[in-house]
Design brief:
The complex is a heterodimer of chains A (454) and B (570). Chain A has 454 residues and is an alpha/beta fold. Chain A contains 16 helices and 13 strands. A 5-stranded mixed β-sheet of chain A has the order 8-7-13-9-10, with helices on both faces. Chain A has a 4-stranded parallel β-sheet with strand order 3-2-1-4, sandwiched between helices. Chain A has a two-stranded antiparallel ribbon with strand order 5-6. In chain A, a hairpin with a 5-residue loop joins β11 and β12. The longest helix of chain A is centred in the C-terminal third of the chain and has 32 residues. The relative contact order of chain A is 0.12. Chain B is of the alpha+beta class. Chain B folds into 3 domains: 99 residues, Roll (Ubiquitin-like (UB roll)), CATH 3.10.20.740; 177 residues, 2-Layer Sandwich (Alpha-Beta Plaits); 260 residues, Rossmann fold. The longest helix of chain B has 16 residues. Chain B is elongated. The chains are: A alpha/beta (454), B alpha+beta (570).
Chain lengths: 454, 570
Amino acid sequence: MAIEEKRLILKYADQEGYTNDIDCYIKHGGYEALKKGFQMKPEDICQEVLDSGVRGRGGAGFPAGMKWKFLDRKSGKPIYLICNADESEPGTFKDRQIIHKDPHQLIEGMLCSAYAIQAKLAFIYIRGEFFEGYKILERAIEEARAKNFLGDNILGSDYSCDIIVHRGAGAYICGEETGLIESLEGKRANPRIKPPYFPAALGLYQCPTIVNNVETLCDVKHVITMGSKEFANIGTPGNTGTRIWCVSGHVQKPGYYEFPCAGVTLGELIYDVCGGLLPGRKLKAVIPGGSSSKILRADERFKGKKKDGTEFDWGIEDIPMDFDSLSLVGSMSGSGGVIIMDDSTDMVEALANINYFYAHESCGQCTPCREGVPWMKKITTRMCSGGAREEDVDLLKSIADQIEGRTICAFGEAASWPVQSFIAKFKDEFEAKAKEQALLRKQGEDTAKETSLI
Amino acid sequence: MLEIKVTDTVTINVDGELAQVPKGVNVIEAMRVVGKEKEIPHYCYHPKLSVVGNCRMCLVEVGNPMRDRQTGEAILEENGEPKIGWAPKPVIGCATNVSEGMHVRTNTPNLIDCRNGVTEFLLINHPLDCPICDQAGECRLQEFSAEHGRGYSRFKEEKNVKPKRTRLGPRVTLDDERCILCSRCVRFSQEVAKDDVLGFVDRGTYSTLTCYPGKELSNNYSLNTVDICPVGALTSTDFRFKMRVWFLKRTHSICTESSVGANTEIWSREGKIYRITPRRNDAVNDTWMTDSGRGLFKEFESEDRLTSYSVDQVAKSLDDAVVATRALLKAGSVGVIGSAHSSVEEQYLLQKIIKQTDATCEMVQHIGEGDGLLLSEDRTPNLRGAFINGLIKQLPERELGQLKASIEGGSIKTLLVFNQDLEQLGIDLGKLKESIQVIYFGNSKNTTSERAKVIFPSLSVFEKEGTFVNQNFILQKFKQAVLPPVGLMSECGVLKAILHELNNEAPETAMPFMDELWSEISENVEILKSVKWSAIPEEGFALEDASFASMNFVETQNLKYKPNLVSKTV
């Protein structure tokens, strides 16, 4: 039996006849939240967002209302709002759906947020590869501007704000908020050091800035529509609202699925929602929140205590899909990119693939990430092409440990967590590969096998 | 940029010991104060540049006293000590400012692991070509690798290949493989030289330092990027492959290019100078100097250099030249063209001679274009000294005044010229009266030396010791780096010998001892009253300049100088 989705953000997205133009959006109740928002005081909206408990959907899961609270309002400098639409985390494809199918929802969410934090100007930093999305957003903004949902004196409220869409040029690091800000300023996207450059105080052009994910900003719209109480009723305390899970990998029906937080377990998501694995295959591992989150092994047992003191004892299929549960099992919900791997997966190759990505995307600013991540990539690539050594496993782990927590931005963690977790959970496979190749070398046979590595 | 104002101090706890450090400085500077500089190695941080924190070498653990969120009161441990909330991750010392009660750990196993890790990472793609690298011996990477490296490599893969010899500009050559991407040079170009030509291209481990297309690193401060490069990536094209730095002797000196008086270090071996680099002085030149100032030593390697005393164009001993000079000076009607290139001591002795012979003295100004940084309009190192010594009373003009008329009119019989070419001063030597005798002090041959009756070859600033007074009235000492040409004595010695001869005292053959000379100077010169030679500190000695407040010196604003705006507007 398939579990029913509860769609909030993607409610209309896939309905027949629903288009991404403004008339269709207004027909479905669009821009009512904005009108309602303008009846409220900005600080009341901020309070609503804080009360709703909505957490950032970009990866770290930091409460959005708390982020807004850190905003430096005393400096007298203009405040900026930036929508982070640089969706590049491998395994994640939710923001693109929102932008393509319901761009006005994002614009409305942004305007509500911009009004709440009294932003002077708002930006959408969209991933360079999303050219179609860029065109859709540009058109949507034109439409909104024509109807005075955007621009000067919006709907006679005395509040003026405009949205500028800025395309990236194809770098994962632009999704890091300070890197994004640098890029938006026209520089290389080198993330800034924090302290002192916390965006809420010294962000875009050294002015207070809020950077939020596409999904988070859309949630703001629903918080205003529903009120914080009703919004907080979705999901569980501390994990409110819905989340869009982007399921990819070895399942029958990969795709995006929206559920209340903790409204579905990982097992339900794989077997009921996504139709299970391919015939004859067995689940081997799951990366639950985009490629940088730590991998979970299918036959693991997760035991421990929750925050409220209750104990849990979960198999991989029992894990409720929400922020806290996934962090309890040692991983994270990240950007919601659930990658399913069945028993046909070669874990060394999978890691080599991930390492290739991070080595390619390291900005090169700070030493551990610039040098360490390509090193890990070189090792895993060598392991796949026949040169594996038994000591490589420990070396990889040691390199990852030397990166984690010592870099300017969270990219260091993003790149070292996969390595650490793959080795912690699949060390046997890495060692087996090295032994197998050593044997083949001894026998004078070709050690490399054909792989589907990029 | 970090400006340290030592007005307040805070108490911090470094590895369990309390220490007083200036308020608001970062942890690296605080460790310098505490004497634990070595505990926090760093590459990208430079005290005169903005902080980027990209090398990750200066990681430290810090903690601050915890406070109760509601009441704001300090939380105490059981023993009454404040409870310390340690940061969960190590932080970079360069971007962390000290605050009252802060705890800093510099040597935990985790931190040692951090440094070792960064060192290993920096070395995996490094060419390890120290044996042919110019930076060897003064290379941060080399030093820290010895201390924090593992001694063998775990890196079995292929190293990255990058350009080995890129010409960044006329004076700087780049080896990209050695570059650790600290961005000091980029920041220097942007923030200090204000000539934004350097940047990184490509991404990640392939990041490469280069000039923007169509631009080159050709500004007059380009060699500072070589100085601040912590590794052997940026090298001086001139010094490249010339000499091992550990063979070179370092002597503190002063740049004579302009009245800024940048503090320098002369690197020499066996009487030959190989390079000149800036020496830090926060009141004068920070840690920078001009490229043009670094090449000044080459002027003294010319073949035109005067190397022997002569009378009537015949080489003579110093005694003969002094005797001949005495006769010329005793004849009276002496004119002196002084020089702001002379040191304070030389000017003092010259002024004594002028008094004794009742001579008239004039100087000319040497001006060029200033760059607002470390090259001032006044291209002499010691004009202020001439005022302090009473050699002149008024600012010199571009040309000689009354003295020129006296020379051309013939009322001057003997002309004592310091470091100038009369022809360049507009005096037609062909028309000069036969009766005028010229005594010439100078470095190299010119039309004046050809006409001179007596020649005293002077020494370069690298071959003698003395002091200059810079534009900010800071008395600065320079020391002898190399030996002068054989048989030559410093101008101070010559002038003293002339004075003795004039006074019929016993001739003095030894070089004048600076201490002795200074005890005399400090007795006779009001502004230098309390100064002792041996007590002049390395960073200079600020003199009382109030009596010169109304003077309209030609310098306009530069790095550490603000012109006297009140009098300028008059």
